[in-house]
Design goal:
Helix content: over 70%
Number of helices: 5
Order of helices and strands: HHHEEHH
Strand order of the largest sheet: 1-2
Shape: extended
Mean pLDDT: 90
């Protein structure tokens, strides 16, 4: 079992390191470079949307059933007005805790 975990760890590391080593000296066009700069935002948005909009394995936009929608809206409003990640996280986690405390 330990050997299997070591092999999986090395494989996972290789899959991350080898492309970096190969592309280190590659000449990438500015268009590709600029386009790839949006990938982290796209991936993070996809992760957040799938977590917020799906409740019990189904797409759900009902505020009283999906307890993640109201904290998500509160977080968006706080992020827009304060533009501070700490305040946004505190508002999101705090409102999520209150939702679970009162409605679960």
């Amino acid at each position: 079992m330990t050997l299997f975990i070591i092999i999986l760890g090395l494989t996972c590391t290789a899959l991350r390191v080898i492309p970096g080593l190969v592309m280190r000296n590659a000449n990438i066009s500015p268009l590709v470079y600029r386009t790839m700069s949006f990938l982290p935002v796209i991936i993070f948005t996809a992760m957040i949307c799938t977590d917020v909009f799906f409740w019990d394995g189904q797409f759900n936009l009902k505020l009283l059933e999906n307890l993640k929608l109201i904290p998500a809206l509160i977080s968006i409003v706080v992020a827009y007005y304060f533009k501070d990640i700490i305040k946004t996280i505190i508002a999101g986690v705090g409102s999520m805790a209150l939702m679970y405390m009162f409605f679960m």
